[in-house]
UniProtKB/TrEMBL annotation:
Keywords carried by this UniProt record: Coiled coil
InterPro entries in alphabetical order: LOB
Coiled coil: 85-112
Species per Swiss-Prot/TrEMBL record: Carya illinoinensis (Pecan)
Name of the protein described by the UniProt record: LOB domain-containing protein
Length: 162
């Protein structure tokens, strides 16, 4: 049964036994998977590690992890998968700081909206009761100046009459 050999047995050019430890985790259609693991850990070590794990589900997870770690160790011989993890941590950190900035902007804009709403309410309360004319603070000041100006001119005209 040469065609039924798993990727590991094919790679190692050996007969694949029915109880092959690699067979469930290294299917024959994915040569790269076993090649990576063999290059970093060695086939014998991978076989021993998988045999130490009793559960099939855990063995599958271990094989996936070994492949992931080996793949990134080949891509980045210095940092391996730690390089990828660090990169993802940095992405999370920058996304979190961006989110914090946007939340602060939203809070700032909301507080500005509330301040403007209360200003509009204050101005509305200063409306003249008989008319719909809005009395602004500048107009009140101008009226005040006018009222102080009139008596002095009246008194000056009065003095000229006598
Ligand atoms: Zn095999």
């Amino acid at each position: 049964m040469i065609s039924g050999r798993c990727a590991a047995c094919k790679y190692l050019r050996r007969r694949c036994p029915s109880d092959c430890i690699f067979s469930p985790y290294f299917p024959p259609n994915d040569h790269q998977r076993f090649a990576c693991v063999h290059r970093i850990y060695g086939a014998s070590n991978v076989g021993k590690m998988l045999q130490q794990i009793p559960s099939h589900d855990l063995r599958a997870k271990a094989a996936d992890t070994l492949y992931f770690e080996a793949k990134y160790r080949i891509q980045d011989p210095v940092y391996g998968c730690v390089g990828m993890i660090t990169q993802l941590h940095q992405q999370i950190h920058s996304a979190e700081s961006e989110l914090a900035k946007i939340r602060a902007q939203i809070a700032f804009l909301n507080s500005n909206d509330h301040a403007q709403e209360s200003q509009v309410q204050n101005i509305e309360t200063k409306l003249h009761p008989d008319s719909n004319i809005l009395i602004l603070p500048e107009q009140i000041n101008a009226a005040g100046l006018w009222s102080t100006y009139v008596p002095t001119s009246a008194s000056s005209t009065q003095t000229s009459w006598f």
